[in-house]
Amino acid sequence: MRRLKPIFRRRTFSTTTTTLLKSRSVVRFSGPDTIKFLQGLLTNDVRRCFGGHSSLYAAMLTPQGRFFCDLFLYQAPRIDGKDEVVLLADVDSSVLDDLVDTFNKYRLRSKVDIENVGEEFSCWQRFGADHHKRQPSSTGSSFSQGNNTGLQWHKDARLDCLGFRGIFPSNSIPPMVEADTETAEENYLLWRLERGVAEGSLEIPKGEAIPLEYNLAGLNAISFDKGCYIGQELIARSHHRGVIRKRLLPLKFLNESGTEVEQKVAPSSEVTSLKSGKKAGIVTTVLGSRGLGLLRLEEAFKESGNLVIKGQEDVKVEPIRPEWWPTEWFLEHEPHQAAG
């Protein structure tokens, strides 16, 4: 569960904005067994990194099928001119050591080197209003301008509206970054919250979260035809059953007059229905007057103004439907408000 200090909120980011992601670190995989090794551990098809997709979003699960961590994978320049597969992974800094230990535990006799290169490389994000609609002029649909290190910006592998993402040397500023366009990472968090996208093990609880409830299929993190991987059974069973009753949603917190309120709600707060008195879900992440919550869809969109924080009935909870959600995720007769 995640709560951050309040920040100056800009209602829109009218220009392209860039942030250094201090919450993320970098792991390098290299060696002849790299693809086979990761293919048996991650939810997505790692071969896509070499089939026209230069970046990939994926998750690693526990053997019970619960979320362990998320990763962004990128092709990397060869090491010292060696003709071998090299992938860089953008990972959550808070689980870095545990993640590297887990990868090493599964490595056994696989010919793959796993290195923490967080001191050498940093993760960056470019985002802003309509940024995803302005196609960069460089090398293709999946990535934009790079620099002489061979590293470059890539379209965010989850959603176009999230902009571009990349890994770059820590001792340099990425291309296309101007001093007056940098912003605090909390502003990128706000951008994600308003679109209903969680990231990392603080927002997607490690060892607890069910990936489909946190919308990882809609965020292009899961391949349902790639073959076996650790934790696949729960994912496949839930997917083929076809009903996900709870999902992660963006939330607004309002007072009784409908004005947004800040610093009134904490993560783990229970969301209840005024009409039925039943628990509708739980708040998972909070930033100012915005947040994310894991809610039952039947309750979330039943009736406007129906949800409140338990024990703080003067704080109303307004779930928002993200525009990127597939229509089949909804009961079509339920009213809803769209979010960009």
Automatic annotation (TrEMBL):
Record's keyword terms, sorted: Mitochondrion, Transit peptide
Cell compartments where the protein resides: Mitochondrion
Any single biological process term in GO: iron-sulfur cluster assembly
Coiled coil: none
One cellular component term from this protein's GO annotations in UniProt: mitochondrial matrix
Protein's UniProt keywords contain DNA-binding: no
Gene3D superfamilies: Probable tRNA modification gtpase trme, domain 1
Principal subcellular localisation of the protein: mitochondrion
Highest taxon, organism lineage: Eukaryota
Family matches, as InterPro entries: CAF17_C, TrmE/GcvT-like, YgfZ/GCV_T_CS, YgfZ/GcvT
Residue ranges occupied by any CAF17 C-terminal domain in the UniProt entry: 245-326
Annotated PANTHER family: TRANSFERASE CAF17, MITOCHONDRIAL-RELATED
Name of the protein in question: Glycine cleavage T-protein family
